[in-house]
Amino acid sequence: MSMSKSLSIVAVVLFLTVPVWSQAPSVTGPDALAATPVPQPAEIPSEVADSPAIRMMAEFKNSDVKFNLDEFVDVLRDRRHEGWVLAAYPDPRTSQPLIGAGFSLDLPERPHPQTDPLNPHPFLEPSSADLWQAAGFEPSRLNAILKVFYERRQQWNKRKWRRQLYSLPAQISDEDATQLVRVGAIQAIYNARGYCAKFNQLSGHQQMAMAQLVYQMGVNLQHFTEFLTVINSGTTRAPEPKLEAAMLTKSGTGEDAALVTSDQSPEYWQGVQRSLMSSQWAHKYRTRAIAVIAMLDPAYADNPKVAEQRVSAVLRPVAVHRRHSHSLASTRRVAAVKRRAPAGKGRAARIRRKDNA
Questions:
Q1: Tens of pLDDT along the chain (357 residues)?
Q2: d(CA 66, CA 205)
Q3: Are 107 and 93 a contacting pair, CB within 8 Å?
């Protein structure tokens, strides 16, 4: 009996130690840059599992926000506002490599300290390589894409990039690009809590607006000091720990448990919206800004179109001054006036001047 039991134990141990090679996707040949399935947590190497970006993805739950993450991803990948290129291309301003809906491919990890003493939530600015792996893609794919991009950048000028942009051979699939948007969306949600201390107390549309601002502007959002001051102006510390539970909202748990929102009036949110309307971003990207700013309206869910119309009425289009055309029209008007002058008036004046002489 003991011999049989020992053999059973050995058989179980051997079964558990067999590697699960059949679960790992093989990527060989010309299709090496094809879509790679997102690996399961058990398949992530130990050195990668320590990445903050991997932990951020693993710890995120749909219940962490009051809006649908898939809906948010669809908004972010809207091709009316974002590019959608399945090969690496240069940023028009910085020439750094982008892919998909504008995912940066070679950013280093950046420090981003939390400067709000009332907000305990930190910021997370991982490198592009970490976010790439958090999306479930192999580092070798990123290296291959960057190698091709850098070779093209040395040989191509801006005009050739523009001509070739939408005819470049795909280096990632549509599903890959969407997964990169998803990683960026989750990072934006994470950092939105760092910018807004009462993020958990916002409505679903207000949370999505905050996350969208972070996604679009990244670390540059820290320079919107007026907006950040206004939106955090109603946040204070709870005066006594024993009163904490009574002051919390249903969603206010965890890090913001000791935070109290003292003002949620329509006037407060109108001030938040005005602080964004006065920014250069709102005037430069007016259509997108109207959609985002309107979502901060507490009554947005009742009628989104009316909320957008209220913002549009204030955020007027920037007037375009065509100086050259104006001066040319003025010149033509002056010339027309001169041609309408009496023909004999000039000759009579010259004759009088000669007679006086």
A1: 444 444 444 343 333 343 333 333 333 343 333 343 433 333 434 444 578 999 999 999 999 999 999 999 999 987 655 679 999 999 988 999 999 999 999 999 999 999 999 999 999 999 999 999 999 999 999 999 999 999 999 999 999 999 999 899 999 999 999 999 999 999 999 999 999 999 999 999 999 999 999 999 999 999 999 999 999 986 655 454 443 333 333 444 445 445 555 567 889 999 999 999 999 999 999 999 999 999 999 999 999 999 999 999 998 876 655 555 454 444 444 444 444 445 555 555 555 555 565
A2: 8
A3: no
Here the tokens at position 339 are 């041609």
**Helix (H, G, I), strand (E, B), or coil: what is residue 100?**
strand
Q: Which two tokens mark 328?
A: 């040319």
DSSP line for 2-34: HHHHHHHHHHHHHHHTS--GGGSPP--GGGTTS
Is 0.85 surpassed by the pTM of this model?
no
Q: Could you tell me which residues are beta bridge partners of residue 97? A: 90
- Those residues with Cβ within 8 angstroms of residue 321's Cβ, 6 or more apart along the chain or in another chain: none
Q: Under 8 Å CB-to-CB from 64, ≥6 apart: which residues?
A: 189
In 3D space, the residue among 162, 144, 161 whose CA is nearest the CA of residue 152 turns out to be 161
CA distance 267 to 3: 80
DSSP type of residue 198: T
- Which helix (H) or strand (E) segment holds residue 258: the answer is none
Count of residues for the chain? 357
**Residues in contact with 353: Cβ distance below 8 Å, sequence separation at least 6, in sequence order:** none
User: Helices 204-217 and 174-195 meet at what angle, rounded to 10?
Assistant: 110
- Count CA atoms within 13 Å of residue 120 on its CB side: 9
Helix (H, G, I), strand (E, B) or coil at 261: strand
